[in-house]
């Protein structure tokens, strides 16, 4: 599984510097053409081996913006991850 950034992204850059594997690109480099930041699922490691939780979600000021993606979409998956399409961090 990987994480994904939803369309409520405010393009604030908070997540970009937090990603230890540079799996996040800004809206100018989003391959889908959408005006939100994008997570390359094949690069995302859910911060396994880097942080206790995905650092991008901890840094994001927009509640619910960063969500879990489908199982099997990432290169490494956390054992205790949430369900797909649920926020990584819930306040």
From TrEMBL:
- InterPro entries documented for this protein: 4Fe4S_Fe-S-bd, 4Fe4S_Fe_S_CS
Identify the stretch(es) annotated as Disordered. 72-91
Xref: Pfam families:
Fer4_7
SUPFAM superfamilies associated with the record: 4Fe-4S ferredoxins
Q: What is this protein called?
A: Ferredoxin [4Fe-4S]
Name the species this protein comes from: Malaciobacter pacificus
List the gene name: fdxA
């Amino acid at each position: 599984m990987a994480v994904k950034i939803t369309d409520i992204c405010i393009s604030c850059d908070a997540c970009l510097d937090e990603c230890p594997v540079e799996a996040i690109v800004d809206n100018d480099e989003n391959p889908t053409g959408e005006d939100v930041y994008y997570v390359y699922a094949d690069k995302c490691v859910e911060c396994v081996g880097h942080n206790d939780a995905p650092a991008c979600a901890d840094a994001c000021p927009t509640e619910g913006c960063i969500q879990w993606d489908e199982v099997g979409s990432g290169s490494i998956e956390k054992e205790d991850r949430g369900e797909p399409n649920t926020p990584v961090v819930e306040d």
